[in-house]
């Protein structure tokens, strides 16, 4: 079995250049663990915030740190007590202490990723790893948030931040579930008051009151992010006609929920969002492109 592997390692927070390729040792598998050979690892907004130091890593020894909230891979090794997966299977995982602020394990920016079997979701053998990674965590976030909006068939759904990772996937999920989707980009005109049944918001900030006002009586709003800031204001009278405001965070995701969401994403057969593929070694360049808003949709690293 492999005893060493390349990974992207941070030894401090800062600009994209703090992301460097290093060779790291692979520890023997513990009980219940699985080793994946990474096929594709998508980059998320959280990765940029953690790297910049805006979102502190919560473990006692913060560095060295391998970023990456998700990975699609092929099983290359299983602990003796693991029976639900076998060498050669395809699977993926996200959140649940993989990288992120919790950083219970090294993240997905690596050639090999070791995780507990219980946090994995199996994938079909013929799945395109890059295409699925481009949906990945963004898709799980969107589909779980949409559950909080209720049935979408025949309803009007406004999606803010429609060129971002979650937004781009949410637009496709909404259409697949039968909604009329209004995709808001930075240059889009604001939605008209009372024009929407449901709103999925990844922007917040100054846009928030406009999105709440766009809801019809009894409409529902769900926040999944606040790219424009979490400080918001709105007219509280707007809640008197039954509008409901809620939110969703994948910090509460577990293996069962991941597997259920994965089955739903595979069933919907979504077209992948716009995707830029870069080698793992170019993680710093990938972060820089995202910070410069030089790419649409998702950026995926491949070893």
Model description:
- The chain has 303 residues and is an alpha/beta fold.
- It folds into 2 domains: 4-134 and 251-302, Quinone Oxidoreductase, Chain A, domain 1; 149-247, NAD(P)-binding Rossmann-like Domain (Rossmann fold).
- It has 6 helices and 14 strands.
- The chain has helices spanning 45-52, 129-147, 165-176, 208-214, 255-268, 283-291, and strands at 4-9, 20-25, 33-42, 70-78, 90-94, 112-116, 121-123, 156-159, 180-183, 196-201, 215-223, 244-247, 275-279, 298-302.
- The strands form 3 sheets. Strands 3, 4, 5, 6, 7, 13 and 14 form a 7-stranded mixed β-sheet that branches. A 5-stranded parallel β-sheet has the order 9-8-10-11-12, sandwiched between helices.
- Strand 10 (196-201), helix 4 and strand 11 form a beta-alpha-beta unit.
- The mean pLDDT is 96.
Portion of residues in beta strands equals 25-35%
CATH architecture of the largest domain: Alpha-Beta Complex
Global morphology:
globular
Overall pLDDT level:
96
- Structural class comes to alpha/beta
Sheet with most strands: 7 strands, mixed
The percent range for helix content is: 10-25%
CATH hierarchy class name of the largest domain: Alpha Beta
The total domain count is: 2
Rg, Å, rounded: 20 Å
Topology:
Blueprint: E1 4-9, E2 20-25, E3 33-42, H1 45-52, E4 70-78, E5 90-94, E6 112-116, E7 121-123, H2 129-147, E8 156-159, H3 165-176, E9 180-183, E10 196-201, H4 208-214, E11 215-223, E12 244-247, H5 255-268, E13 275-279, H6 283-291, E14 298-302
Parallel strand pairs: 8-9, 8-10, 10-11, 11-12, 13-14
Antiparallel strand pairs: 1-2, 3-4, 3-6, 3-14, 4-5, 5-7
Helix pairs in contact: 2-3, 2-5
């Amino acid at each position: 079995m492999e005893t060493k592997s390349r990974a992207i390692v941070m030894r401090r927070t800062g600009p994209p250049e703090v992301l460097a390729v290093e060779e790291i040792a692979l520890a023997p598998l513990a009980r219940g663990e699985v080793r994946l050979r990474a096929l594709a690892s998508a980059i998320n907004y959280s990765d940029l915030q953690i790297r910049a130091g805006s979102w502190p890593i919560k473990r006692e020894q913060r560095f060295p740190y391998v970023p990456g909230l998700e990975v699609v891979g092929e099983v290359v090794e299983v602990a003796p007590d693991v029976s639900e997966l076998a060498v050669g299977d395809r699977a993926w995982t996200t959140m649940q202490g993989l990288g992120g602020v919790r950083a219970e394990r090294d993240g997905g920016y690596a050639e090999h990723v070791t995780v507990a079997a219980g946090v994995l979701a199996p994938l079909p053998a013929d799945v395109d790893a890059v295409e699925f990674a481009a949906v990945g965590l963004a898709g799980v976030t969107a589909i779980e948030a949409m559950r909080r909006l209720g049935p979408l068939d025949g309803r009007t759904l406004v999606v803010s931040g429609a060129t971002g990772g979650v937004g781009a996937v949410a637009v496709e999920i909404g259409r697949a579930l039968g909604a009329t989707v209004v995709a808001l980009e930075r240059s889009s005109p604001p939605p008209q008051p009372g024009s929407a049944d449901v709103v999925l918001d990844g922007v917040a900030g100054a846009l928030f009151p406009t999105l709440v006002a766009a809801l019809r009586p009894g409409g529902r709003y769900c926040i999944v992010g606040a790219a424009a800031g979490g400080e918001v204001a709105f007219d509280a009278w707007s809640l008197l006609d039954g509008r409901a405001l809620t939110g969703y965070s994948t910090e509460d995701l577990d293996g069962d929920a991941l597997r259920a969401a994965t089955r739903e994403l595979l069933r919907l057969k979504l077209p992948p969002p716009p995707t830029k593929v870069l080698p793992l070694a170019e993680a710093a360049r990938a972060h820089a492109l995202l910070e410069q808003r030089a790419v649409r949709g998702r950026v995926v690293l491949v070893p």
